[in-house]
């Protein structure tokens, strides 16, 4: 996951870098074209000026020849030549690369050349002029270097400025996010968001406040309904079960009536267990249990003794690896429920003559039983999820285990290895 600032800054830097890379050759061609145009214009002016000044002297033909010779000697970048017979009398512009005739510290230079026909004493002459254009490359180099330096300063400044601005501008958002991270419906406490002068953040905080207030109200209503329903059902369920027990002891019942009453008693017993488990879940979610130090190994051994009859009924072989003096912080009643639920769940879903393994150390409590295929992990700890045809259970055992682990800061996970269902509680 990337911070929002990085997501916006990185594309911007890449975009600027692309523009920079493109701008360097663009600078080169633009500056070079301007430079060549200016040199061509300069060469044209020099040719016209030379022609005009020589004609203004009104020299004789002999003096003109001497003047042209002198001109060629004292002007190294220009020369005036007689027109050859095959000359087409057209002007031309071209570039040559060569060494300077009078400089030795330069290897090769570029020259912009103009070859033009001028008329002296009304006779055509070929006027050649060459002007060094190497300075254009130097100009382009310095422009590019300056652009790169400015780019570095610009990007560096923007990064520093963005970080400082984001720290102040996004501070209300971060405060809101931190408060949401610590919010829990179980605590049922409203969040007081800080006031901000940014309209978007203010609207966000107001919307979140309304949403949280609504959720707390709905959550309270649901919890009150669950608690009240469970409490109110306990008494009529107990009365009904008591009446059925008395009815089952009546010797005047026919066999058919006895079976009907027995089925009613089993259904009523299961309803009573579901009601008690729902009430237990409500109490766990309400944080109505206090934690203390528990000797988990002793508690586990006690549960094993109590459940020994269940192992014997299905002739299940039990393998135990229980470390001694394992101490944890939790509620002893809830921890006992967790142990019993995991072991009873393993017994219920283990076939006759199967095997169960129970392990305990300072870091984990593990219960595994033999099986044929992996269970659906997504539905395993949901309420009233069933993975067998056994209707004796309430469908809440593993959901209660999950809530107990959550309330005591433990974690439980499930895996299927070597034809064994393994439930592991990390303490």
UniProtKB/TrEMBL annotation:
The chain crosses the membrane at residues 12-30, 140-161. Its EC number is 2.7.13.3. SUPFAM superfamilies: ATPase domain of HSP90 chaperone/DNA topoisomerase II/histidine kinase, Homodimeric domain of signal transducing histidine kinase. Pfam families: HATPase_c, HisKA. Gene3D superfamilies: 1.10.287.130, Histidine kinase-like ATPase, C-terminal domain (3.30.565.10). It comes from the Bacteria. One of its GO terms (biological process) is cellular response to phosphate starvation. It catalyses: ATP + protein L-histidine = ADP + protein N-phospho-L-histidine. Residues 228-427 form the Histidine kinase domain. GO terms for molecular function: phosphoprotein phosphatase activity; phosphorelay sensor kinase activity. GO terms for cellular component: plasma membrane. Keywords: Kinase, Membrane, Phosphoprotein, Transferase, Transmembrane, Transmembrane helix, Two-component regulatory system. It is an enzyme of class 2 (transferase). PROSITE patterns: HIS_KIN. This is histidine kinase. It comes from Epilithonimonas hungarica.
């Amino acid at each position: 996951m990337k911070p929002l600032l990085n997501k916006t800054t990185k594309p911007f830097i890449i975009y600027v870098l692309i523009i920079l890379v493109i701008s360097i050759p663009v600078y080169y061609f633009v500056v070079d074209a301007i430079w060549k145009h200016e040199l061509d214009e300069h060469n044209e002016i020099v040719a016209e000026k030379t022609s005009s000044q020589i004609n203004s002297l009104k020299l004789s033909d002999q003096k003109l020849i001497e003047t042209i010779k002198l001109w060629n000697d004292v002007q190294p970048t220009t020369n005036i030549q007689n027109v050859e017979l095959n000359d087409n009398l057209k002007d031309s512009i071209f570039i040559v690369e060569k060494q300077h005739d009078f400089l030795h510290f330069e290897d090769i230079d570029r020259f912009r050349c103009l070859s033009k026909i001028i008329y002296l004493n009304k006779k055509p002459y070929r006027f050649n002029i060459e002007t060094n254009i190497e300075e254009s490359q130097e100009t382009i180099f310095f422009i590019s270097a300056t652009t790169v330096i400015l780019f570095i300063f610009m990007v560096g400044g923007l990064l520093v400025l963005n970080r400082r601005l984001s720290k102040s501008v996004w501070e209300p958002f971060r405060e809101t996010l931190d408060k949401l991270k610590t919010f829990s419906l179980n605590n049922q406490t409203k969040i007081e968001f800080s006031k901000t002068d940014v309209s978007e953040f203010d609207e966000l905080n107001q919307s979140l406040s309304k949403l949280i207030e609504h959720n707390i109200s709905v959550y309270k209503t649901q919890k009150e309904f669950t608690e009240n329903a469970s409490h109110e059902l306990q008494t009529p369920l107990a009365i009904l079960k008591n009446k059925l027990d008395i009815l089952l002891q009546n010797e005047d019942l026919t066999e058919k009536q006895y079976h009907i009453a027995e089925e009613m008693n089993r259904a009523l017993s299961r309803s009573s267990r579901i009601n008690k488990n729902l009430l237990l879940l409500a109490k766990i979610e309400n944080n109505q249990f206090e934690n203390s130090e528990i000797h988990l190994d002793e508690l586990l051994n006690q549960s094993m003794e109590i459940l020994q009859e269940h192992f014997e009924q299905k002739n299940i072989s039990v393998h135990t690896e229980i470390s001694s003096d394992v101490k944890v912080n939790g509620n002893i009643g809830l921890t006992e429920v967790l142990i019993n639920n995991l072991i009873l769940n393993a017994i219920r879903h283990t076939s006759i003559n199967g095997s169960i393994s129970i392990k305990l150390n300072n870091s984990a409590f593990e219960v595994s039983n033999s099986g044929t295929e992996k269970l659906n992990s997504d539905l395993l700890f949901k309420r009233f999820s069933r993975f067998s045809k056994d209707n004796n259970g309430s469908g809440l055992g593993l959901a209660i285990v999950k809530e107990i682990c959550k309330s005591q800061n433990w974690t439980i996970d499930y895996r299927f290895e070597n034809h064994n269902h393994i439930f592991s509680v990390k303490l």
